[in-house]
Design a protein that fits this description.
alpha+beta; five-stranded antiparallel sheet; three-stranded antiparallel sheet; single chain
Length: 171
């Protein structure tokens, strides 16, 4: 008499194998999804840290009084002189503002930026960096103390949570 598997035993073993494959596939899919979420989170955190470094270095190395004004949309316009330069060490005037197309920009220029009275040749002697896009509002507040000044940057992008950065200027 030959020994062999019955049809029922083969069907049961294939069913068990398929159930294991389904669990393995779901585990792999969940791992892939978690990796994507982690990658997106770490990229966002890295970018926030880079922004914080830019704000912090600009404010810490500022050489003049920091001027905070409001534009027509009630967003902050921040102007000052800083020895922190990313493009040209002679371009020490820094301006942070929201552009007309809702971008947070940093202007590093040779001369002070004047919103209403900007000459066309101003842009020949300046660098404009786009820091963030889709900005709903940008606000800078100063909390002055005797020994240092605390500046709080509040940024709200469309469909994202608001971001808050703290910087200090020592006198």
């Amino acid at each position: 008499m030959k020994k062999a598997f019955t049809l029922l035993e083969v069907v049961i073993s294939i069913t068990i194998f398929m159930i294991l494959l389904i669990f393995l596939y779901k585990t792999l899919d969940q791992t892939k999804h978690s990796n994507q979420q982690f990658s997106k989170y770490s990229e966002n955190l890295k970018y926030k840290n880079e922004l914080n470094d830019i704000f912090l270095e600009d404010i810490l190395e500022s050489k003049s009084k920091i001027e905070i004004k409001k534009d027509n949309d009630k967003n902050s316009l921040l102007r000052f002189e800083s020895s922190n330069s990313y493009h040209n060490s002679f371009f020490n005037h820094i301006t942070y503002m929201i552009s007309s197309n809702d971008k947070l920009i940093r202007i590093e220029s040779k001369d002070k930026f004047n919103l209403a009275e900007t000459q066309i040749d101003f842009y020949d002697y300046s660098f404009i960096d786009v820091l963030l896009e889709d900005i709903e509002y940008f606000e800078v507040k100063e909390n002055g103390k005797k020994s240092n000044h605390n500046y709080v940057f509040v940024i709200k992008q469309k469909d994202k949570e608001r971001i808050i950065f703290n910087t200090y200027k020592f006198k």
